[in-house]
Amino acid sequence: MQIYLPIAEVSVNAFLLLGLGGMVGVLSGMFGVGGGFLMTPLLFFIGIPPAVAVATEANQIVASSFSGVLAHFKRRTVDLKMGCVLLVGGLTGAALGVVIFNYLKSLGQVELLVQLCYVIFLGIIGSLMFVESLNALRRSSRNAAPVKRKNHTWVHGLPFKMRFRVSGLYISVIPPLLVGLLVGVLSAIMGVGGGFIMVPAMIYLLGMPTKVVIGTSLFQIIFVTAFTTLLHATTNYTVDMALAVLLLIGGVIGAQVGAVIGTRLKAEQLRILLAILVLVVCGKLAFDLLVMPSELFTLGAAGGH
User: Fold this and answer.
1) Which UniProt keywords apply (predicted)?
2) What is the domain range of residue 12?
3) 99, 173, 199, 249: which sits with the fewest CB atoms below 10 Å from its CB?
4) Residue 213 belongs to some domain of the structure
5) How far apart are CA 299 and CA 305, in angstroms?
6) Which residues pair with 169 in a beta bridge?
């Protein structure tokens, strides 16, 4: 069933969009990521313009994250205090990111920037998560004692400390604010919730327990992506509501399924699955970037005559 998207100005299959939304919703519930790092490139691949894909995907993440966070609230695995600190940084970063996005859009460089950001961030994070998860799986298969994280790292020496009871932490608010800021900028420029950066940062940098990380990440993502969508809608007019609604319906259903699947798997298994997925998407985008210059070269040659 073909449907015409008025803002994107293309016709796509409605069931394909529902399926994509559902698949990304499952990821949201399982891993605590908004799923935008996967959905935005998929929207590029089916012909949605980058500016529309980024702005609309931020909208869809709000719904799938909200659906996922409800399941975590029931299990009491959301650190609201930590979520609010991350949120302050996130909202500031989102405002900054939209300014950068609009500037690059005026230069006509948005698509290149978005794809480069994806390749760099997904490549680094996917590799680090894969290596760490593989080591954790090896230790658990040998029944070896898990390597304890150092209780005192450079993070613990920073000022402005605050107690986060749900996470069992007493740390400076500076690292969570900076993590939130970075995720906010990425949310605006890349159309992602930023969970693929936030989840590893919360586990390894802040030292939060894995069971609390996913719910807290989703809580923060809801508000940052909602704010991002609002900014894009009012400054760029690039939010396609027809596209958003179809992705949203699939995403809400998928997030509930993902939250159930997530409780059945070990934390190490979840992380290694997410790492593989991140690396696959990164590879596809890198391939597209390498193929693109030949087309640009022919355009340049044509202009030279």
Assistant:
1) Cell membrane, Membrane, Transmembrane, Transmembrane helix
2) 2-287
3) 99
4) yes
5) 11
6) 164
What integer pLDDT is reported at residue 193 of this predicted model? Answer: 66
Residue 302 has a pLDDT of 43
Q: Please report whether residue 297 resides in a domain.
A: no
Compute CA 23 distance to the chain's CA centroid, rounded to the nearest angstrom: 14
User: Rounded to whole angstroms, how far apart are CA atoms 187 and 49?
Assistant: 17
Q: Does residue 300 lie in a domain region? A: no
Q: What is the pLDDT of residue 301?
A: 42
Query: In the chain, which ranges are continuous DSSP H helix?
Result: 14-31, 36-45, 50-74, 80-107, 110-141, 174-190, 195-200, 210-235, 241-264, 267-304
CB atoms < 10 A from the CB of 260, how many? 12
CA distance 20 to 7: 19
Number of domains in the chain: 1
- What is the pLDDT at residue 32? 62
Contact (Cβ atoms closer than 8 angstroms) between residue 224 and residue 90: yes
pLDDT, averaged in runs of 10, over the chain (305 residues): 75 82 77 69 78 74 75 78 86 88 79 79 81 80 58 63 74 83 82 72 78 82 82 75 80 78 72 81 81 49 44
Compute the Cα dihedral for 258, 216, 202, 96 and give only its sign. positive
* Inside any domain, residue 211: yes
Of the candidates 5, 49, 58, 39, the one whose C-alpha atom is nearest the C-alpha of residue 233 is 58
CA–CA distance, 154 with 41 (Å, rounded to integer): 36
